[in-house]
Write a structure and sequence with these properties.
With 513 residues, this protein is an alpha/beta fold. Helix content is 30%, strand content 27%. An eight-stranded parallel beta sheet has the order 4-13-12-11-10-9-6-5. Helix 1 packs parallel to helix 3 and helix 9 packs parallel to helix 10. The radius of gyration is 24 Å and the shape is globular.
């Protein structure tokens, strides 16, 4: 029996294990409607992603398609996608588009959409209802629980032995847009009461939400109720099939007012509540389309939250971020969104209207796919071959990884035991990766260097009256964790060590005199 589980490895690093072995998702997420039929998957998805060196794919499944009539389930689409993935040799993570998707209730079945009395929606302060079922609606949460647990039981019945499906995302970018909280009568009553006992203990407060949390009260209130609802749904599903589950977050961003981003969703500022109220989730995962992706990774990767990136921009900078996410943050998953579009002519890639990108603070360059397919495929191949060495060195100070963090980040200094490496990032250029550098300190004098769009020089330590020089410099590639030399560099060729738009690997041996 195959098993997928998230747990700490022997070094104490949280890791996804599949069939007893670490599994690092070099993945991609397909568009929201790309899994609507098996024919679309067969014609428009699998042929496009075969060239990218993926080992997994993140695919939505839709409540409205699975339970069109209450209590009657149709798993033909789910079964077909699993069978297709097996033929492709890829693992799957399913996105459960249930009660909430992008802060709305757009994928619920018609029998929920049309019964707004039983499955009531959240309200604005003026009484207007929004297209989001309230997490306070117990009937709706119960219906989602039944559907999700039935799906999990079915996946177990057909896939437990093969373990094609290795994880589940519960809902998608949860929260409320256009209002900081639900102002329905039920919500108002709860908001004006004392905070629940769990929150009181968590924050050492005993007053009302507003008295306890002031300007943050509305978002904290919604985070509590969304997290509780997601926990109910997740726990019910895992009782049927204990797959790793996570929830993803629409980032908290400008203008920083709850409701301009989904209020109550698992963004970083409310992780304390989500972690306490939804312990069945192994991660709260960021969806990252901003220019400062590395900052978001740094923020979301911490001791109690393994970095899992189900959605990230798909332009050429994704390759640089894939290296940084994996080699610096030990990410469980890296997955550009709309992955099927990388194989298309960049001019044909669908882009949101500019006014939408401005409203949502999305960097328009995130949809410029020039150069992305080749760089990402090469990076994923490199990470695959590098895995044995990575597993040996991760969690030690002998592996360092860096990426350009912003406009005024010009480079970095990697300090090893005997030498310092000075890295200068190339200026950002459309259609090319960002500056990225990683070093494996194999011994005091021998180093494996990996990089993109940067230049590297080296020096002895400050105050040491010696000069550093090259014993040997070789350009090569990695096969099963081992460096394979393709070219010995000497003479003029060793005067400048430069990395370009495709990930490159060098073996460098130094000495001092």
């Amino acid at each position: 029996m195959c098993k997928s589980i998230v747990k700490k490895d022997e070094k104490g690093i949280t890791t996804l294990f599949v069939d007893g072995k670490p599994f690092f998702m070099r993945s991609g997420e397909i568009h929201n409607s790309s899994a609507c039929t098996l024919e679309v998957m067969e014609k428009e998805i699998w042929p496009q992603v075969r060239q990218l060196n993926l080992n997994s794919l993140i695919v939505p499944i839709y409540w409205e398609c699975i339970e069109k009539e209450e209590g009657k389930f149709d798993f033909a689409l789910v079964d077909g996608i699993i069978n297709q993935a097996r033929k492709e040799g890829l693992k799957l993570v399913f996105l459960w588009f249930g009660l909430w998707k992008n802060a709305e209730s757009m994928y619920v079945p018609a029998w929920i959409k049309t019964d707004s009395k039983k499955y009531f929606r959240a309200e604005k302060v003026n009484g207007d209802r929004i297209n989001t079922v309230s997490p306070l609606c117990k009937e709706a949460v119960e219906a989602d629980k039944k559907a999700f647990s039935t799906i999990m039981a079915h996946i177990k019945s057909i896939d437990e032995d093969q373990c094609t499906v290795i994880g589940m995302q519960v809902e998608n970018e949860i929260g409320l847009l256009g209002t900081p909280r639900d102002y329905s009568a039920k919500a108002n009553e709860l908001f004006e009461s004392k905070v629940p006992e769990e929150i009181g203990k968590l924050y050492d407060v005993s007053s009302t939400w507003k008295e306890a949390f002031k300007d943050d009260a509305e978002e904290f209130f919604m985070a509590y109720h969304f997290a509780k609802a997601v926990e109910e749904i997740t726990e019910a599903g895992q009782k049927e099939y204990n797959l790793p589950c996570y929830a993803n977050a629409w980032l908290k961003q400008y203008p920083w007012i709850a409701g301009t981003y989904p209020s109550g969703g698992p963004n970083r500022s409310v992780h304390k509540i989500w972690k306490a109220m939804a312990p069945s989730l192994f991660a709260l995962a960021p969806d990252v389309y901003v220019p400062f992706c590395a900052d978001v990774m740094d923020e979301y990767a911490y001791e109690d939250n393994a970095l899992f990136i189900p959605e990230i921009r798909k332009d050429a900078v994704a390759s640089s971020y894939a290296l940084y996410a994996t080699l610096h943050h030990n990410a469980l998953c890296f997955s550009p969104f709309g992955i099927e579009e990388l194989a298309l002519n960049p001019e044909l890639v669908d882009k949101p209207p500019m006014e939408v990108m401005i409203a949502l603070n999305i960097d328009p360059s995130a949809f410029d796919t020039r150069g992305s397919k080749e760089a990402l495929a090469a990076t994923y191949k490199l990470l695959d071959e590098l895995e044995p060495l990575y597993l040996q060195y991760r969690g030690t100070d002998k592996l360092q990884s860096y990426v350009r963090h912003g406009e005024y980040d010009y480079g970095c200094l990697a300090r090893c035991k005997e030498y310092d490496f000075k890295i200068g990032y190339s200026p950002r250029t459309s259609g090319k990766p960002l500056g990225s550098f990683s070093v494996f300190e194999l011994s005091d004098n021998k180093f494996l260097l990996i990089g993109l769009e940067c230049s590297v020089s080296f020096n002895v330590k400050a105050g040491e009256n010696k000069t550093a020089e090259i014993v040997s410099l070789q350009a090569g590639h990695i096969e099963n964790g081992q460096f394979v030399s393709d070219k010995l560099l000497n003479g003029d060729e060793k005067m400048a060590l430069r990395f370009g738009a495709m990930p490159a690997v060098f073996m460098l041996e130094l000495f001092k005199y």
